[in-house]
Amino acid sequence: MKIIAQNRKAHFNYFIEYKLEAGVVLKGSEVRSLRNKGTANISDSYAGVDKGEVFLYNSHIASYAQASYQSHEPTRVRKLLLHRGEIKKVIGKVKEKGYTIVPISLYFNRKNIVKIEIGVAKGKNTVDKRQKIKERDIEREQRAILKRK
């Protein structure tokens, strides 16, 4: 599994309830760009439901220089491929207040197919984020003390 891009802030900004693996509908120049450069950004992207289908918004895949006249738009809306039961489960959660679909990582699976890991998540408030920062600082201090001894 070759990771192309990760959303490192997803675990900091959201409580992720469960994760799903989804396929991504891409054009040929997008796949070539991901294979050669691996330049993709999903940190500002999000997924949404429209007419019973799940789409990925605001994700950036760099344009491919050697593409023919039909190059892709870097931030176009991309369809995510999920099973019908998974889509219904996601729609049910997103209709609840405070839940959203967050992309976690974009990668090539074993068969060299581009997949995206999405999570159904609930947003954290600032108190939760501060608590996470405090826990991280305490762990860092403990590691430093153990290292000195």
From TrEMBL:
GO molecular function, one term: RNA binding
Primary residence: cytoplasm
A GO-annotated cellular component: cytosol
SUPFAM superfamilies: Small protein B (SmpB) (SSF74982)
Superkingdom of this protein's organism: Bacteria
Localization terms from the record: Cytoplasm
Tagged with keyword Translocase: no
Pfam families per record: SmpB
GO terms classed as biological process: trans-translation; trans-translation-dependent protein tagging
Keyword Hydrolase (UniProt): no
Spans traversing the lipid bilayer: none
Keywords: Cytoplasm, RNA-binding
NCBIfam families given in the database record: PRK05422.1, smpB
Function: Required for rescue of stalled ribosomes mediated by trans-translation. Binds to transfer-messenger RNA (tmRNA), required for stable association of tmRNA with ribosomes. tmRNA and SmpB together mimic tRNA shape, replacing the anticodon stem-loop with SmpB. tmRNA is encoded by the ssrA gene; the 2 termini fold to resemble tRNA(Ala) and it encodes a 'tag peptide', a short internal open reading frame. During trans-translation Ala-aminoacylated tmRNA acts like a tRNA, entering the A-site of stalled ribosomes, displacing the stalled mRNA.
Family of the protein in this entry: Belongs to the SmpB family.
Name the record gives this protein: SsrA-binding protein
Provenance organism: Candidatus Phycorickettsia trachydisci
Encoding gene per record: smpB
